[in-house]
Amino acid sequence: MKLGLIGLGRIGAFHAETLAALDTVDELVVTDAVPAVTERVADRVGATPAGSPADVLAAGVDGVLVAAPTALHAELTLAGVDAGVPVFCEKPLAPTPAEAERVAAAVTAAGVPVQVGFPRRFDPAFRAARAAVEKGELGKLRTVRSTTLDPAPPPASYLAGSGGIFHDCAVHDFDAVRWVTGREVVEVYATGSLGGGDPDAFAAAGDVDTAATMLTFDDGTLGLVSNTRFNGRGYDVRLEVHGVADSVAAGLDDGLPLRNTHPGATFPAGPPHTFFMDRLATAFRAELAAFVDVVAGRAAVPCTVDDAVAVAWIAEAATRSLHTGRPVRIAEIREPATVGD
């Protein structure tokens, strides 16, 4: 199989190494906006360098991965779709939910497979939690809690174009709780604060460095999502699902970046996870292997454009709630013409 990869920044270069190690990938064609980066990554992983995204698509690839900056996701995804090539697009599908809706409609009309990158769906513990819910082992769900705590913030230049903590960071939690519970979010209430590092960088982007979001699902289940850009002990990704019959948790391995104050406790043994590529390495490999199966026609898309649109609206509702100080219903912003009818 011959795959293309567009964008060789932090996550793109990581994907290049993962793809090059897959037995099912015979050739990898890569490109980046910076030619020196293209050459450097191609040399390191044994890939074929290309001068532009158009050159990648013209190289006869069977599938293409889009890991370019967010502003280019929609354009590059649709270029792949127009070429009839299955696409893996890193989140988000587009910079805004409305644009993501338009991209999703075009993808659906074209009938070309597009997978969106939400790696927690491929984490073994998260998958086991979802299986427990699907089997009814927890009984009726009451609460779900999801956490993403980053050890340090991204650069100010990244923050300016990230869309804010809900679109950039919490969106992974929003996808995880929606996927694990199998329910839709109908209302969002969010709050946030500044106080870590250089708050001016966040304020300039209209963002916060720490946030909490309460989600109400269509069956009455409540979700709690917590996020921060400043978690000194490491990179913390966890999920808890509580039902009337049982409760489960994902992310409680020995790398959990928490110091247990219970007398005599030895868990977690450490060392703590310090980066998402460490914590989710297994998930990333499984995610890309799943895309290879999609390209080969062996599997359906595991994370669709419709999934990406749904969580984009949750993130948008959280952003609006943060700035207005009130709960925001998804229908209120996604279908404004129906409100009050």
How would you describe this structure in keywords?
21% strand; Rossmann fold; oxidoreductase activity; single chain; nucleotide binding; 2 domains; Dihydrodipicolinate Reductase, domain 2; Gfo/Idh/MocA-like_OxRdtase_N; oxidoreductase; 7-stranded mixed sheet
What is the radius of gyration?
Answer: 20 Å
Enter the CATH topology name of the largest domain: Dihydrodipicolinate Reductase, domain 2
Distance between the termini: 52 Å
Q: Regions with pLDDT < 50 over 5+ consecutive residues?
A: 337-341
Give me the secondary-structure category: alpha/beta
Query: Strand-residue fraction?
Result: 15-25%
Instruction: Look at the structure and name the CATH superfamily of the largest domain.
Output: Dihydrodipicolinate Reductase, domain 2
Number of domains: 2
Give the assembly state of these chains: single chain
Put simply, the count of helices is: 13
Domain Gfo/Idh/MocA-like oxidoreductase N-terminal: 2-118
Organism: Pseudonocardia thermophila
Keywords: Oxidoreductase
Protein name: Myo-inositol 2-dehydrogenase / D-chiro-inositol 1-dehydrogenase
